Amino acid sequence: MNFFKQWGQFMMMGARAHAKWELQVSNTILNDKKRLVILGLIAVSVILGGIAFADQVGEAMPHFLGGKKAYSPAFYTPGIFVVSILIGLGAGLITGCIGAGGGFIIAPALMSAGVKGILAVGTDLFHIFAKAIMGSVIHKKLGNVSVRLAFIFMIGSIVGATIGGVINRVLFEINPVLSDAFITTIYVLMLGILGAYALIDFLKARKAPVAKEFHGVKDEGVEMASLPQKLQSINIPPMITFDQGLVPGGRRISFLFLTLSGALVGFCAAIMGVGGGFLTFPIFVYVLGVSSMTTVGTDIFQIIFTAGYASIAQYAIFGFIFYTLAMGMLLGSLLGIQIGAMVTKVVKGITIRGFYAMAVLAGFVNRAFALPGKLAEMEIIPLSQQASSVLNIIGIWAFFIVISLFGIWVIGTFFRNINVLKGEGGVS
Questions:
Q1: H or E element in which residue 331 lies
Q2: Comparing C-alpha atoms, which of 93, 145, 107, 136 is closest to residue 338?
Q3: Predicted TM-score (pTM) above 0.90
Q4: What residues does each domain of the chain span?
């Protein structure tokens, strides 16, 4: 029980840190006219390209390059593009309003919309990579980045992303249903733990005299807990020095722990399609003992390179990315994050915490109800096709109803309080 609580806290801290990065990236893109023009041109080219080649290429394209039969739907239609924007909008509203990563709902949402699991993962990774490149603010953070720390960490993340990508592709080659079942199982476990922790956290906060605000990430400065102190005391050369500008003489940690941490982040990114950013912050600060200032800069490096390598080298060249979906999600998430972030100014933190628990648990229910059908299709468990279909439909409806109601509530709250937000400078 203690393990699940600690893992829930770990994931929650990472989700908050990743949400903070998402908001920063969104602000960078939307406040720069040149980036907006580039984004618009990319969106138009992707959409027009999809329209021009959907019929001719979609039918003739080999399965391993994204043919319709292999990855349905893997071709452009206006309906698919609109759905991708709505999915991105929902994830953005959760990220911006709640201050915790809404990216956890993207893969379940895409799979519920009929996209194969491996294509959902690859597309989500590419959407994160495109967002990171478009909103890169590395030049502002270089003073807080330890290059050696980042380099060693990324060696591990590339290894981990390679292993994760190979596992997903091999499982898909064996049986596409097995691939879906594997990805679904991972999401059931991760969302189950995170959702349970978020719900317990919300219920405890309701009983507390004054509930702490949920939004944001605590600045850990340079303090260290016992675990990072123990790891830094283990001398396995070469030792990597970092935080020289914050701690006299800096701190040192073995390359082995950095590489293993990077491998875990890369592996999770390639398996789940969430970029790995939700793991980097808690691992650096609470496991390795890196200051939060250095962690923020290094995390930007990590997301760009890990998501970029995993999406291109492990998915794109094998045809596992649906570009029109990725562009739609990018456009929707940029808008959703801005609206959600402004709504936090007029909504109580305790309400936001409750909605986050509901959103994560809705994703958990969605994947949990889809899993029996996948296992039955592989003849692992006895379950009729009708029963599988009923469970799957219940999971899909429960998921989209909760996310839709949340989205309507956030957007409605935004418009009801638009005059207040204008007074605070939140709306131009």
A1: helix 323-343
A2: 93
A3: no
A4: 2-143+172-212+300-423
